[in-house]
């Protein structure tokens, strides 16, 4: 099966969202084998982590965003990120490792052909979406630089460029945006580097050209516009934990039993739905990731 990298596909050739959303019914009706042969664009790479839920429409994913570098209103990123330049783009991977590397974004993508997966992606405002991301797992990227025994955590840093990112001219947060994972979290196959959405290159307002997706954690952990990945020995600072440590912990695992100080997190509202639904522990991925936190008090380590 052929896989495509951002820039490989002409806009006229991209499968419409309406077809993408109905692909399972289409393949069932036509016969999976015959359809895959006749319509290879609809034969998606499968993952054991695919969500069964229908993906959120492209329009909603790209026009309802938290991305304070481009403004604090949910509509600001789409309005302000259109001219953001994602080429040339360099990603440095260094720190406690034997073979630090610096990649141009397209060279990095060539090393790891994107795989299509659907991840449920929630954030602390109790709204959620289902994201048909394309990209590749973070773990193999980290293994390539050969982490040393001192590498206990992975620190991520976003681009700092107030000329392109008007929100960085404000004091709403400390800039640049930084995030972090424990190394075993980062090595888990669910930790994912995103380069595309709905089979298209990742839109600027969704974190282009490279963002993180950690689907069992709240959305603010999924840092956007990554320029630096550093293996470190001590727990790194994270932007929202620095801004409000009593509200946003380092781990930030989706946990309906731990309320935000200003609201309940027991329920969430999926974009496009009228009524709230129960929030699932670890965002529905408890079977895959709960073992990472065995013996930890998840109320204290929120």
Q: Quick one: overall form?
A: globular
Q: What is the fourth-level CATH superfamily?
A: Oxidoreductase, molybdopterin-binding domain
The CATH architecture can be given as Alpha-Beta Complex
**Structural class by secondary-structure content:** alpha+beta
Oligomer state equals single chain
The neighbouring-strand order within the major sheet is 2-1-12-7-8
Give a count of the beta strands, DSSP E runs of length 2 or more.
14
What is the class in the CATH system? Alpha Beta
Give the mean pLDDT.
86
Can you walk through the features of this model?
This protein has 302 residues and is α+β, with helices and mostly antiparallel strands. The protein has one domain: Oxidoreductase, molybdopterin-binding domain (Sulfite Oxidase, Chain A, domain 2, Alpha-Beta Complex), CATH 3.90.420. The chain has helices spanning 17-21, 23-30, 32-38, 58-63, 76-80, 105-111, 138-144, 183-187, 239-243, 286-289, and strands spanning 90-95, 101-104, 115-116, 119-122, 127-131, 133-137, 153-158, 178-182, 192-197, 200-201, 211-213, 226-232, 267-270, 277-278. A 5-stranded mixed beta sheet has the order 2-1-12-7-8. Helix 2 (23-30) crosses helix 3. The chain starts with 16 loop residues before the first helix and ends in a 13-residue tail after the last helix.
């Amino acid at each position: 099966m052929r896989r495509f990298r951002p820039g490989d596909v002409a806009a006229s050739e991209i499968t419409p969202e309406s077809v993408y959303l109905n692909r399972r019914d289409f393949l069932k009706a036509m016969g999976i084998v015959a359809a895959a042969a006749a319509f290879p664009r609809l034969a998606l790479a499968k993952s054991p982590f695919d969500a069964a839920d229908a993906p959120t429409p492209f329009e909603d994913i790209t026009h309802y965003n938290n991305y304070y570098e481009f403004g604090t209103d949910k509509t600001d990123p789409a309005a302000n990120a259109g001219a953001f330049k994602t080429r040339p783009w360099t990603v440095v991977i260094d720190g406690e490792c034997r073979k630090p590397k610096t990649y141009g974004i397209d060279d990095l993508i060539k090393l790891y052909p994107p795989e299509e997966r659907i991840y449920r992606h929630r954030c602390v405002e109790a709204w959620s979406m289902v994201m048909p991301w394309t990209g590749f797992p973070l773990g193999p990227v980290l293994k390539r630089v050969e982490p040393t025994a001192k590498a206990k955590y992975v620190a991520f840093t976003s681009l700092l460029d107030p000329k392109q990112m008007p929100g960085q001219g404000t004091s709403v947060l400390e800039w640049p945006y930084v995030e972090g994972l424990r190394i075993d979290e980062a090595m888990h196959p669910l930790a994912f580097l995103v380069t595309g959405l709905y089979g298209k290159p990742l839109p600027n307002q969704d974190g282009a050209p490279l963002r993180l997706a950690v689907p069992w954690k709240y959305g603010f952990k999924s840092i956007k516009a990554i320029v630096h990945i550093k293996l470190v020995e001590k727990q790194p600072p994270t932007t929202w934990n620095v801004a409000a440590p009593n509200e946003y912990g380092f781990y930030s695992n989706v946990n309906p039993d731990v309320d935000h100080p200003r609201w309940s997190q027991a329920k969430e509202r999926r974009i496009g739905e009228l009524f709230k639904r129960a929030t699932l522990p670890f965002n529905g991925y408890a079977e895959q990731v709960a073992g990472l936190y065995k013996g930890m008090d998840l109320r204290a380590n929120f």
